[in-house]
Design goal:
- By secondary structure, the protein is of the alpha/beta class.
- It folds into 3 domains: about 5-80, no CATH class; about 90-100 and about 360-475, Aspartate Aminotransferase, domain 1; about 105-355, 3-Layer(aba) Sandwich (Aspartate Aminotransferase, domain 2), CATH 3.40.640.
- Helices cover about 45% and strands about 15% of the residues.
- The protein has helices spanning about 5-10, 15-20, 25-35, 35-50, 55-60, 60-80, 105-120, 140-145, 160-170, 190-195, 215-220, 245-255, 285-290, 315-320, 325-330, 335-345, 350-355, 355-360, 365-385, 425-435, 460-470, and strands spanning about 90, 150-155, 175-180, 185, 190, 200-205, 225-230, 260-265, 295, 310, 390-400, 405-420, 445, 445-450, 450-455.
- Strands 2-10-9-8-7-3-6 form a 7-stranded mixed sheet, with helices on both faces. A 4-stranded antiparallel sheet has the order 11-12-15-14. A two-stranded parallel ribbon has the order 1-13.
- Strand 14 and strand 15 (about 450-455) form a beta hairpin.
- It is globular, with a radius of gyration of 29 Å.
- Bound molecules: pyridoxal-5'-phosphate.
- Pyridoxal-5'-phosphate (PLP) binds near residues 159 and 233.
Length: about 475
């Protein structure tokens, strides 16, 4: 029989859309996904079979062919109904992982966001006099209290904060900044680029490793809009270095009557040394050193929602808020709800290492990490016995998001090393990594020294059961 005839016979055996829909097993599909989507999916699958003319499928006995199609449709519908944005286990060892959503919010913030989303709220409404309000007023008093600033405003992220402040205070004028601070943060935030887009002229001074007060002094002229200091969050210059203390820069700026702005990047609101963590400057200290404007992120060490916070002198903040771009960069009620709830937690700093997830993870005792690792280890060994040697390895977690780049936190990881050595070992590692990503709640780790490593720091007790239970579905 010529091929095209066989093919044609195969097509004629394909069931109709209605026939598939009428199969008793497919009734729940209609209830779950709705008729439109199911019909569309069955049509698509029938068309695919016609186009690809898979002989093996087309020659199946009628009942099996129908089951095949129904199973495929069910699979595709389930797959298509997965949200694009999903929860994952971040076991990379980087606590504030930009690609994995940075800070986890405390329950108080989650509750506040739910409330703000599902009910009308006084976002821009003054409840005392019934007049129009200003959304920044929702968090300004808390920010004043926690940073000592006279005024504050909130925008979409810290990149927006820096951009808006530069554009508001330095348009068509010069901004003096040390060459050693012309940093790139996370690929798309580069200080010189932001400055150019903000309409400011960059006046670069000093050298990569050393900048002196007289470098600043010589650069100041009639076109100077401000002095800028950028916290070199994600790298450290070591050795023969010199940077000008903030208090000296502030005094110099004051003498020349120009503002001094500091981009802190992470900007924790408290002294982290209290918990044995490395020192990171706070907005409060920076303002006390004489900075006029300070910018920092909401979702780095602060542990809140994505936003950028600008604090400083009332007249400068006022100027920034008057910029028409403020409207384009402002944040919505969900962000304000979460930010306010997080800032409130800072009023009880002694409880922060319990109440604020970021700090809880960063200060998690080694014994607790070890306990989780020992719970997880035997289960992992059982599931991976045929493919890999699974053991515990000391490792170092990172704070992440450009915070404190050189300081690492001792931790413990479950290391999965393929049994297969030499050729094929790398491919096996990739396969293991992929299998963990394919789990219902994808697990993200990192490959290190011949093993797929899962840092147990961010697997808190509440998540252990869910983590362990899904391991049965690992398909390697
Ligand atoms: C992270 C960072 C930024 C960008 O902040 P986002 O909140 O990610 O927009 C800007 N400046 C510094 C110094 C940073 O560390």
């Amino acid at each position: 029989m010529p091929a095209h005839t066989a093919q044609h016979d195969g097509f004629s055996r394909l069931p109709s859309v209605d026939r598939i829909l009428a199969l008793p097993g497919n009734e729940p599909l209609l209830a779950e996904f709705g008729r439109t989507l199911v019909v569309q999916s069955v049509r698509g699958e029938l068309q695919r079979l016609r186009q690809q003319s898979e002989a093996a499928v087309l020659s199946l006995p009628r009942e099996q062919l129908e089951t095949f199609i129904s199973d495929r449709v069910r699979f595709l519908l389930r797959q298509g109904s997965q949200p694009a944005l999903r929860a994952v286990f971040n076991l990379t060892g980087t606590v504030l992982h930009t690609n994995l959503g940075r800070a986890l919010l405390p329950q108080q913030a989650v509750d506040a966001v739910m409330q703000a989303m599902s009910r009308p709220c006084n976002l821009e409404y003054d409840l005392t006099d019934g007049h129009r309000g200003d959304r920044d007023d929702l968090v300004e008093p808390l920010l004043q209290e926690l940073t000592g600033a006279a005024a504050a405003t909130v925008v979409n992220n810290n990149a927006a904060a820096v951009f808006l402040a530069l554009n508001s205070l330095g348009l068509r004028k010069e901004v003096v900044v040390s060459r050693g601070e012309l940093v790139e943060i996370g690929g798309s935030f580069r200080v010189p680029d932001i400055m150019a887009r903000a309409g400011c002229r960059l006046r670069e001074i000093g050298t990569t490793n050393r900048t002196h007060l007289h470098d600043f002094e010589q650069a100041i002229g009639p076109r100077t809009a401000m002095l800028l200091k950028v916290h070199t969050s994600n790298y450290a210059i070591q050795g023969f270095t010199k940077a000008v203390p903030e208090s000296d820069l502030a005094a110099l700026a004051r003498r020349h009557d120009v503002p001094f702005m500091v981009d802190l990047g992470s900007g924790t609101l408290i002294n982290l040394q209290k918990w044995g963590l490395p020192k990171e400057p706070t907005p409060e200290e920076t303002l006390a050193q004489g900075a006029d404007v300070v910018t920092f992120s909401g979702d780095k060490l602060l542990g809140g929602p994505q936003c950028g916070i600008i604090v400083g002198h009332a007249d400068l903040i006022k100027k920034i808020k008057k910029n028409p771009l403020k409207r384009a960069l402002r944040v919505d009620k969900m962000t304000f709800a979460a930010l306010e709830a997080v800032l409130r937690l800072y009023r009880d700093p002694d409880s922060l290492s319990q109440t604020l997830p970021v700090l809880r993870l960063l200060t998690r005792p080694f014994a607790s990490i070890q306990q989780t690792a020992q719970m997880v280890l035997p289960v992992m060994q059982a599931h991976l016995a045929e493919q890999a040697a699974v053991g515990l390895r000391p490792c170092l977690s990172q704070i992440g998001s450009g915070s404190l780049p050189v300081d690492l936190l001792p931790s413990l990881c479950v290391a999965i090393a393929p049994l297969q050595k030499g050729r094929g070992e790398g491919a096996m590692l990739k396969k293991i990594e992929q299998a963990f990503r394919d789990l219902p709640v994808p697990v993200v780790g990192r490959i290190n020294e011949g093993a797929f490593c899962l840092d147990m720091r961010c697997l808190e007790t509440a998540g252990v059961t869910e983590f362990i239970e899904q391991l049965g579905q690992l398909a390697i």
